[in-house]
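Troubleshooting: if your tokenizer reports a length mismatch, compare your output against this known-good record of 96 residues.
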Amino acid sequence: MTHGFMHKCVGSQYVVASSRKRIQFQQRHVFMSCRMKHNVRLEASENFTQQGLIFNTPDRAAFQETLTKSGFYQTWQAKFGPALWSALEKFTGPLA
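Known-good structure output:
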């Protein structure tokens, strides 16, 4: 009984094809959600700017350099552990 899943035999293991489709759907959903949030933030910042609000944008390189020198990244790298820190750096690039 397959419980509605399509199975493919790979050697002695079974790969659930529908799981791959679910993951792809979730990835698309997350991407679209992030895109929508970005668009809402952009629209809101444009509206606020037109009303006279000023947004400060820090120099990211200088900010990260200060965090590195202060030991911030080393502290959190130790708290997160290697697996979680590695996952974080996949999105941010090297931090420490």
